[in-house]
Amino acid sequence: MDIRKPIPTNGGDWNTKFGETWKAQTAKLRDKFAGAIEEIRMPVEYPTDVPVIYVKKDQIIDVLGFLKSEAGFEYNFLSDITATDEEADPRFEVVYNLLSHTLKCRIRLKVRVKDGEEVPTACALWTAANWQERETFDMFGIKFKGHPDLRRILMDERWVGHPLRKDYPLRGYQVFTEPMAAKPELLD
Amino acid sequence: MADPTGTNYSLPSGIDIHHGAHHDPDDLWEDSRVIVNVGPTHPAMHGALRMVARLNGETIENSYCEFGYTHRAKEKLGENRSYHNYIVYTDRLNYCSALANNVAYAMAVEKLMGIEVPERAVWIRMACAEIARVIDHLICVGINAVDIGAFSFFLYGFHQREEAYTLIEKLCGARLTTSYTRIGGLMADAPEGWEKELKAWVNKTRKTLDEMDRLLTGNKIWHQRTVGVGTFNKEQCLRYSYTGPNARAAGIDIDLRRDQPYMYYKNVEFDVPIAQNGDVFDRYAVRMEEIRQSLNILAQIADKMKKGPIWTEDKRVRIPDKEVVHNTMEGLIHHFKFFMTGFEVPEGEAYSAIEATNGELGFYIVSKGGPRAHRMRIRGPSVYHYAGLTEMTNGEKIADMVAALGSINIIAGELDR
Predict the structure, then answer these.
(1) What's the pTM?
(2) B375 to chain A: closest CA residue
(3) What ipTM describes this predicted complex?
């Protein structure tokens, strides 16, 4: 990993602004969740704009819940849930981008997950996680344990494969000519 | 065949008015329930969206939403196109405010590469983002009013929107799909006297906005259709990750322009309007006030813009000047490599978000080196807003669903990506 200068942004360097906050927060996290945290990548040492915290998948909900409500963290806003296909073992990384409305800083959590493994759902913490996890499932085939309604969201429900996997071809078109009827059972 | 007296009519087989599962003989309204499918192509839906709702009379009991009909695999394309090639795809995200998307994307790649853009380029980008906000809000409040039945209101705003397109056309030659920014600069400088035209447009739009205000804001029918309709409170907004005017209408005091100042938003003065109730009227009122604030910002930008370069000096991303390309061998090779291979972005990852017209528009880019991204994630605000529609409209009238949908301003291009 090359060691580079912190990434400057158009709005000033986040690391000079939040560097101390992040250091205190990650130190506290290491104490609190010693067994759950695999690795912490800080800006400056690694080419990233905010700290990246790798969490074991079974404890991710505990860590997210702690970050959401604990004083001094207050990452109460879920910016985004997505994933990346690393083409390695473990294959996927599920990415949680959080923002604190009070401290105005961001943080990123990642969970390494093997193909076919399940990640616990974050729906209980943020309702917004519902559709984001559905999209992650649709695009990568990562299943979320305990998700109330894990269906495809962007692609047709008859679609085969998961388009954002690196082994899915760029022009992997699938054509459906029959329309999909409404599903009254979803309304109960 | 149906009985002509209507007393002994039976439905053709295969149609189940009880919708399967439970039949409750004590429920007097059971037979009056009906499932209505709105969309994907329906004049009241903004773009190809689908909502399936179970109605009891006119009241929505429950519903579910579908989207993805205009999915164009933008994130997949981001992994297969060079960073420069990808600019045109960002136009087609929120096509009502293409300029803001261009700016957000360029800023994300620049953040990843650690590139600073010269002053004039940043001012022009800021002007672009604010013009985009004004025209997007104008179309949002206008179309929302059209959906509810106030047509002429929309035409006032639309005229100013066309005038804004003329301004944009002077910048980049295109009206709708602008592709104006480049990584590290802009496609072209603003023409001579553009600032003056911008100011004239700002003054004209202020007057138009006052007219629009007089026409609708105090209107009794408008109040009856919007106040207390489609309410989404602070707690719900937080749970659904609402951002932008929709969150501010519910009293969440967030604005990335102020909280996480990017570009030169520190150097201009503006207020962040907040409402409390989070209903359709509050969203309308917040948007109207935001247009005024954006016009104030634009007037300040027009004063502060100075002459200067619009391209960074960084040779990695700067498109070689035509003079050099046409007259030197090295320049031609550089030009060829730039457009055929693309420039290298060092390994790293960054999440860059701006306050786009509807809320937080973020690009999460992971680079493993090379001219193409390893992952190009687009976090559009519309997805989060649309997810809340079911909870927002349960228990409301179906006609109010149309008002609520218009007020949260779903743009299908950004929703489906």
Answers:
(1) 0.87
(2) A84
(3) 0.88
